[in-house]
Structure formats: C-alpha cells, structure tokens
Amino acid sequence: MIARKTKAIFELLVQMSLKALTLRRCRLSSLPALFTSPNTPLSASLTHLNLDKNLILAAPFTALYSLPKLETLSLRDNKLRSVEGLGQFPSLVLLDVSANLLQRLPETLVALTKLRTLIVKNNKLREMPSRILSQLQSLVSLSADNNPCVLLLESHTFQDLPLRHLSLNASPAPQIEAAPMPSSSSSSSGNIVADETVEVVQEPTTASFLASIPSGLETLCMKHHQVNLIPSDFFDNQAASLARLDLSNNGLASIPADFAKLSKLDILSLANNNLSEIINGLDNLPSSIQSLNLSSNPLAIMPSSINRFSNLTTLVLSDAKLNDLPSTVCELTHLKTLDLADNLFPSLPKSLSALSSSCKVSLCDEDKDEHLIMSAPRPRPLPRLSSSKTTAASSSVTTSPRGTRSPPGLVVFSDYHWDKLNSFFAKGSGKEDLPDLLLCDQSHSSSISC
C-alpha cells in the first residue's frame, strides 16, 4: 500500500503530461492508483512505464484503461505470479516481465498486435505456448532464458513471424541426469529403457526445432539444450542473415562443414562442448568471424589456420587443454582480447611476443565477466540521472519566465524512498511549481537528481 503521505505526490503526477515515468526500487507492492485515473494529461501522454525491482505481487492490468498510448512496460524483478489483462495496451511494443514468478503466459497476449519485443526470462514457465507466440505477428525479439520448461515449441511457431532475435537458453541440467548407470543386460532393464527413451525423444525435438526456424534470424542463443546435431536445413535457412550464434554448453563433438554457409556470422560461441579435433573443423567456419569462444573444450591443439580470421578481435581459449600456441596467432592484427587461462602451457608461448601491443592477454584464472556474452539485443533503457544532492538541484535547472516553460517530459524516481520524495515535493504548492522540481524537460536541456 502506498503511504498516505505520498498520496499528494501521485495527485500531482497525474496532472503532468509525462511521456516516460520510472519508479524503480520504490518498495511498491501494487500498481499506484494514479494509473487508473481517466481523462488526465498523464493518461493521454504516457508511453514508457518502468516499475522494475519493486514488490508487486499482482498487476490488475484491466484497471489501466487510462494508458492507451503505452508502448513500453517493464515489470522486471518483482513478485508477479500472473499478468492477466495485458490486452488493455493495444500500442504496447515492448514488454519485460523477466525475473518474476510466472508459471504461464496469458491468452490475452494475442491482443498485442504491435508487440515487437517480449522478455520473459528467469521465470517459472512450464511451457512456451506456441498457440500464443505464433499469433504475435509483429514479434521481432523473444528472450525466454532460464525457465524450467525444456524446448517445447512446435515447428510452426515462428513460421509467419518477422523474428530476428531469439534467446532460449535453458537452465543447466541436473548432474544426476548426466551420470546414467552402467548398462546391464539383466537387472534394472526398466530404468535403462526409460533413460534411453528420454534421449531418443529429446534429440530429434531439438534438431527439428532448429530446422523449422524461418530465415532472417540474426541472433540465436541456445545454451544447455544437449544439441549434438545441427540439421543442414538450419544453415540453409540462416545463411544470409545469422550474425550471432551461441551454442555453448551443449554436446557438439565437431564443427559441421555447413558452418561455411553462414557468411554473415560475426560472433560465435561453442564453449563447453565436446570439441576435441578441430584441425579441419576450424576451416569450416566463415572467415568473417570477429569473436570466437572455444573455451572449456578438450582441444589440445590449436590449428595454425587460426590466421584465416583476419577480422578477429576476441579469441577465448581458456580451459582448452592447450600446451602450445601456433605462431600464426601473431598474424591476427586486429586481436584485442586473447584468453588462455587454465591451459597446460609448460612455458610462455613464444608466439605471444609478436602480438600487437594493444592485445590484452589473460594467462591466469581471474574473477571476471565472460568475454563473449550472447543475448538478444535489448532496447536502450530509459535514461537515469546522475547522483547529486537535492540541495544543489535548483541551481542546475535552466529556468525561464514563470508560465512559459513546457511541462517536463521525463520523471525518474529510482532508488529513492517515498518519505523523502514527499518532503521534496512539499516545497511546491501546486502544479505550476513542479517544473522547478522535476528532472528533465522535453528538450532534455535541464536535469536534476533526487
């Protein structure tokens, strides 16, 4: 519940012609009542709403009839268990409900005919409803990483969609499943048959899904799906468009010759597979690659043909069982990052001395972010204001004669407590005083931080 002393703040906000409003980390447990007030300047103008990192348990979207122009809605990292009523936003272009407690997607999603970006990762979804996704005719980007469901999309799901970015990284499989009992011809035959049945069903499902993805895809991320076979149809369909591919943490034992068809490929991650012999496989990769991650594979030998990738800027070979590095590495003149941590070098490879001085080389295991992070592109977030003291705020605002300034177009209340906001607004007695207090006008010429 919103504290009584902050009610006046919402009454003032509802009278503003705001285009974007961010209320992050404000300890909200429900949607503020200001969004249900019809026929106000706010309802006629608001297009971007960010309520990330609150404590919202339920979102009664059916009550938000007053926001017909809303294009971006972000409810990331709340406690949502349901998002019914989303059909109330016919203009919605981006919806982010990641990091919640959702177990299913509502049927009302099909009413969002303009939706281009859907982010539902880090939830508890038990299935990806093909009957719903296939009707989102404007969908360009889908991110559904880290949900309990395995790949249960029917082959026709994306056939008629303009999909460009798809991220379906699964959660890591339990270690119990990765260590089956030794085969036996007598006892426990029932358990052995059950394990084999699971393998037979899952493998063709993944392969058929890859083959069914329509052409035009630019980004595909599919970690932890036990992929050990990539069908030729996948390479044929994506030959002219695929630029970013992440198949880390799968079961690939070799690099298929069909990889050469992906002429637009820039970023490739095959980390943590079963690649052991890539002398010929490396020649199958398109020379256009700029970032290559082959870490956590039992490579043992890095072929001298690595110099084919003349545009390579990032090369990750950590934990690859290497004991030497070919001299041709020094021919990679654009290389900026070379990760060789956790290998078996008896001494410093001589080829390193010939690398460009601008190349950062890592030879030891460090606590660092992944060099190659694969994810579907996200729209740029709403601007956040720099941290500064409220007392200095009024001096940083470019003022104009009272009554001639246009109303603010952006308000950001992030990481701030409502009791402090209440005192912040207390100095203004009416709507005419708000431009001195709010954060950024429509021309973005003035800024102030709470």
Description:
The protein is largely without helices or strands. The chain has helices at about 5-15, 40-45, 130-135, 190-210, 230-240, 420-425; strands spanning about 20, 50, 70-75, 95, 115-120, 140-145, 165, 220, 245, 265-270, 290-295, 315, 335-340, 360, 410, 440. Strand 5, helix 3 and strand 6 (about 140-145) form a beta-alpha-beta unit.
Key terms:
single chain, 450 residues, little secondary structure, 16-stranded mixed β-sheet, 6 helices, 16 strands, elongated, disordered C terminus
Q: What structural class should be given to the helix and strand makeup?
A: little secondary structure
Listing every helix as H and every strand as E from the N terminus to the C terminus, the arrangement reads HEHEEEEHEEHEHEEEEEEEHE
SS elements, strand count: 16
- Overall geometry: elongated
Strand order of the largest sheet: 14-13-12-11-10-9-8-7-6-5-4-3-2-1-15-16
What integer value in Å does the Rg equal? Answer: 27 Å
Strand content: 5-15%
- Our count of helices gives 6
**Ends: how far apart?**
22 Å
Q: Provide the helix percentage.
A: 10-25%
Low-confidence spans: 175-204, 367-408, 416-422, 427-450
The residue-averaged pLDDT reads: 76
What profile does the largest beta sheet have?
16 strands, mixed
